[in-house]
Specification:
12 strands, 31% helix
Amino acid sequence: MPINDDKPAMEVRNLSFAYDKNKVLREVSLEIEAGKITTIMGANGCGKSTLFSLMTKNLDARKGQIFLRGKNIRNLNLKEFAQKVSIVQQYNSSSDDITVSRLVSFGRTPYRKTMHGKSEEDERMVEWAMEVTGILDYRDREVSRLSGGQRQRVWIAMALAQNTKILFLDEPTTYLDIRYQIEILELVRKLNREYGITIIMVLHDINQAIHFSDRVIGLADGTVIVEGSPEEVISTESIRKMYGIELGVTQIDGQKFVLMV
């Protein structure tokens, strides 16, 4: 069940960032609610990838602060951070001969001590992660032999093996056909609803963001344009502000949809 907790899972305060004096984020402040699925969206170049990288400690927040359950992530080393937050990046690669179970087991790295082998807890979490993501049947197969959708499940399983309550996903449906896109997003919703994992993901598809998110954060020109539930904040006007294009918004069976053509 989702977590019922008034304290934000993450909080961003007055965050700014620039590349070579080109400001990408401008005084961004936002909150990520615990136990919810939050999607970051916006046009290419709006700053969402930079925001994702800062929130996952892949970039250093030089101006502004990011708090994880009340603790400034700047004060957490990577091992401490990895015990609290797991991440599936947009681009992932592995050696051609590595097996599914071996790759998933890397998710236990933050808990292992030097010169110590796998613990019973390591084995249990790896088995659980493969079971939840539906890849037990592939455990001895090389990851390189799997389909794109199956490989994405393996990377998600590796993240689950970290046993964290916060999962970041950077465009998890990229390069997948529509069947696997929906399967991955339904898995994401299962992880949230059944296991209480807070999800923060970046998506390009507006309708998928509406359908699979509890909250959306929309960026434009490095600032937060909208923040709230999709039903409340997705409109023709907000889409114009985020994407610079006029698209109709309608209701079908009580669900908002954006008319893409």
